[in-house]
Amino acid sequence: MLAIEAKNPSRPIENGKEIKVKIPVGYHIKLHTLKVLKGQSISDTVELALEKYFNTHPWPEHMPPSARVVQVGSGPMGPL
Predict the structure, then answer these.
(1) Closest to 74 measured CA to CA, from 2, 20, 26
(2) Which residue spans within the chain are E strands per DSSP?
(3) What is the pLDDT of residues 19-41, one digit of tens each?
(4) What global pTM score does this model have?
């Protein structure tokens, strides 16, 4: 399951938004390993990964960019 929660930062971030994301433990271990080996913050690593992803997966024209993701995963009535 992947959960996303947007937060209002106490200080402005350069055109950014702070979010809280629940990820599988294995992903966290891999991100932490990259942090230790490369000396790059987890935030910077995730930002680079997202930039690469969205550069190779264009946003669908029929979907507005402000579409809100409420929940990703399986609900009580099956996959969402």
Answers:
(1) 2
(2) 3-7, 18-22, 74-75, 78-79
(3) 898 999 999 999 999 999 999 99
(4) 0.56
